[in-house]
Amino acid sequence: MNIHEYQAKGLLKEFGIPVPQGGLAITPQEARAVAEGLPGPVWVVKAQIHAGGRGKGGGVKVCKSLDAVEEAARDILGMQLVTHQTGPEGKKVHKVWVEQGTDIARELYLSVVLDRAAACLTVMASPDGGMDIEAVAEKTPERIFTTRLDGCLRVWPYQAQSLFFGCGLSQPQVGEGVKLLQGLVELAAAKDATLVEINPLAVTGDGHLVALDAKMNFDESGLKRHPDIAAMEDPEEGDPLERKGQEMGVNYVRLDGYVGTMVNGAGLAMATMDAIKQAGALPANFLDAGGGANEDTVAAGFSIMLSDPRVRGILINIFGGILRCDIVAQGVVNAARKVNLQLPLVVRLEGTNVAEGRRILQESGLKFETAASMAEAAQRIAELTKEVRS
After folding, report:
1. Which H helix or E strand runs over 336?
2. What CA–CA distance (Å, rounded) separates 81 from 87?
C-alpha cells in the first residue's frame, strides 16, 4: 500500500525526522490560508498523487507571494497530472500540500528498502539526490552506498557514519544523519514498510538535514497490525476495478492485456497467465476466485472482469478441489446472462463435480468453447482474441 507525501511526512515527524512545516489544502483559498501560517517569503505547492516526477509534469510550484500560492493551487487542483509513473492517462489531483520554502545547499538520497533476495531491510544512500535512484544505479552505480540490517532490525552508528561520510557530509552533518537514519529504520521496522524513501534529503544553507520529499510503501499483509496505516489508504488513488474486487472479496489485479482470466488458486492463475503469453496473447487481469468461493463470488468476479473495456475475450481455468466445478459453472452462466456476454469464452474445467459443471454450461445456451488442457485453452483464446482485434 502506498501513501501520500503529506502522510509520509507526518510519519517522519513522528519518528523524530526533520521535515519542513506545511499543511494540506483542497481549495485555492485553503492553500493561501495554510501559507499565511507558515514562514515565508517562499512557499512550495505540491500535488498529492501516488507518483514521482510531479515537478516535471507541473505538479510542483515554487511561489514567492500569497497570491502566487493561491494561483498555483488553482492550477494544480483538478488537473490530470501526467508523469513517467502515471502512464499517459495521468492522475487527477484532489489535494495539495503547501510547505515553507527551504534553502537548499545540497540534495542527497536516502532510503530503507526491503531486499527480498537477501530477505532483510537494506539502507541505500547516494550523494545524487533529486534523481530517480534507478538512473543513478544505471549511470553511476559507484555513487550508491548500501548496508544490510541485521536481525535486530537496527542500523549501527558505524554503518550510518560510513554511508554519510561516503556522501561527503561533514562531521556535524554525519552526526545528524546517524540520528535521522536510526529513526528511519525504526519507522520501517515498526510499521512493516517495504520502502521508506527520502528523495531529496536536503542539506540546508545553514548545514542541517531536512527531508524535502518522502515516499512510503507498506506490506498489505501487515496492515491488520497497523490500523493507523490502513486508515491512510486513499481510494481515489487505486484502480476502481481493483477496489471493486476488494469490496466483493475477489482477488483481482488489473493488467495491461486483453484476455480476461478467472482461475482458482494463485499458483494456477500465474501459470494460466504464463500460458496465455506463450500462446501469443496478453492477460488483462489476475483473478483468483479462491478455494472457498461460492456462486455469488464467481459471478461477482466475472462481472468485474467484464467491466474492463480492454477485455476482448475470457479464459476460465478451474481445477475443482474445494471450489466445485458446478458452482463455477453456475456463477459463469448467471453473470454471462446478466451482462449479455458477447465476447469469446473458453472454459477449461477439471476436478470435483466436473461432469455437472460441463452439463450446466452445455445446457445454458451460452456460446463458448471448451478445452481439455490449460495450453489448449490458452491457444484457443489467443486465436479468438486476435480475430476480435483484427
Report:
1. helix 325-339
2. 10
- Cell numbers for 152, please give them: 535486530
Interatomic CA distance for residues 62 and 23, integer angstroms: 15
Q: Is the pLDDT of residue 153 over 90?
A: no
Q: Which helix (H) or strand (E) holds 377?
A: helix 374-389
**How far is CA 155 from each of CA 83, 149, 352, rounded to the nearest angstrom?**
34, 6, 53
The tens digit of pLDDT for each residue in 284-316 reads: 999 987 766 666 777 788 888 888 889 999 999
The residue from 30, 176, 197, 295 that is catalytic is 197
Determine whether 268 is exposed, middle or buried from the number of CB atoms within 10 Å of its CB (0-12, 13-18, 19+).
middle
Q: Judge whether 6 counts as a catalytic residue.
A: no
Cβ-contact 153, 112 below 8 angstroms: no
Q: Among residues 109, 176, 237, 258, which one is catalytic?
A: 109
Could you tell me the three cell numbers for 31?
492553500
Cell numbers for 347: 472454459
pTM strictly above 0.85 = no
pLDDT tens digits for range 357-381: 889 988 888 888 888 899 999 999 9
Q: For residue 266, what are the CA distances in angstroms to 61, 259, 275?
A: 44, 17, 14
Other C-beta atoms closer than 10 Å to the C-beta of 160 total 23
- The residue among 287, 305, 275 whose CA lies nearest residue 378 is 275
Encode burial over 52-83: b for 16+ CB neighbours within 10 A, e otherwise: bebbebebbbebeebebbbbbbbbbbebebbb
Residue pair 200/107 in contact (Cβ under 8 Å)? The answer is: yes
Reference 251, options 232, 275, 268; nearest CA is 268
Q: Is 188 helix (H, G, I), strand (E, B) or coil?
A: helix
Active-site residue, 258 included: no
CA separation for the pair 151, 195 (Å, rounded): 17
Sign of CA dihedral 144, 187, 155, 195: negative
Rounded CA-CA distance 183/180 in Å is 5
SS3 (DSSP) at 22: strand
**Which is nearest to 38 in space by CA: 98, 92, 118?**
98
Task: Tell me the three cell numbers of residue 213.
Answer: 520529499
Q: What's the rounded Cα separation, in Å, for the pair 319 and 267? A: 11
